Structure formats: structure tokens, C-alpha cells
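Re-running ABC transporter ATP-binding protein to confirm reproducibility after the cluster update. Everything else is unchanged from the original entry.
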Amino acid sequence: MTALLSLSGVTAFYGAIQALKGVELNVNPGEIVTLIGANGAGKSTLMMTICGNPRARDGRIVYDGADITRVPTHEIMRQGIAQSPEGRRIFPRMSVYENLLMGAHGRDGGEAAETMEQVFALFPRLKERTAQRGGTLSGGEQQMLAIGRALMSRPRLLLLDEPSLGLAPLVVRQIFGAIRDLNRSTGLTVLLVEQNAFQALRLAHRGYVLVNGAITMAGAAADLLARPEIRAAYLEGGH
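Result of re-run:
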């Protein structure tokens, strides 16, 4: 199977500090792939590098058969990639409806309305709060809105950066359940960066472990979940 997204020998720097060290990673069509690692391992940097900011210094990033390593960020987004960034970054003064419309760039009114109804089916709480300002939503609702906004562009690849950050366990289960349902019903491909290794590996088909900017382990998610070194490093002391 040809990968939808492929990173080969990718390095990235912030000034003189090397954040990614020869990363090799593949995401196949229809997969949920998770990238786990400690805080500061370079997970969010990898997501941002895929989107072109920071730019990869070495290596290649290939999406849907095309080299996007040097493609401007706005062009990458137009090719069917959407990102729900760490920290949500919704528009707090805009309503839920307006926030969702911001994600529907390039879609006509009918198509945007249809996609919005699909988002509401996935996250019914958002439909109840259509006219409410984004900044007045709970943390879980803001995360749902950030994911919903990303889905409004009808992406082929969804980049999810720390969707569980700061959320109660019940809300985390709801959001991860929605991602699983979406993947199963539409075949949406997902690359998930997550500190909650237990939830991420339960959700994903495959996983990669990132340590200090380098991939140290990769395999089927169930196999990684069962490995003693993974359990000791990321899962001990509760889920």
C-alpha cells in the first residue's frame, strides 16, 4: 500500500536547536496513527513541520505522492490536510457557527451546510451552542469545536495535536470515540499526537514513539501497548 503521508529523514531546527532528528514515519490511507512521547520530545514540532512551519531542513515530506517539503503552508492545507492544533486556537469572540464556517474555506454554501450537519452529528453539544461565543465554551466543547472546524474542509488527512490536553477523562473518551467513529464510517486518515499514551494506543492502528526528536520505536498499537518498556515509561501510575 502506498502511504498517504511519508516522512523520510526529516530534520527541523529552532535556531541552533535541533528539534527533529532524521524522522521516518508513514501513514497509510484509512489509518489512525499515533505519535507518543514525553512533553518536549518534539511531537508538536513534527506536526508543524508537516504543515511547513518550521520548514524541514533535511529529508522529504511526501503527501499523496507529491513532495510537499518546500510547499507553502496555505498550499499544503488546500491539498486535503487539516490540523486541529495544540491549545485549540479557536476564535473566542466568534460564535460556534462562525468558527465552523472559518474552516470551510473554498466550500460553497450548500456543501458547507452539509458538512456542518455532519460535524453536529459527531458532536451534538456544538449544535446546542451554535450561537454561543467560542470563548464561553468549556474546555471539552472548545476541543470539539477545534476538531469540527478542521473537519469543515473535508480533509483526507486530519492532524490532531494533543486533543486530550487538560480535559476530564469522560470528555477524553467522548472525543476519542468520535474520532474512532469518524475513521470507521468515512475512512478518514488521522495522525494523532498525544501525551495520553494509553488512550492514543487504544484508538490507533499503529504507533510511533518519539524521544528527543528521534523515533525510537514503531509498530502495531496493540503491540506497543503491551511492551513493558512502553508501560513503564508512559503508562505506569494510571491511565
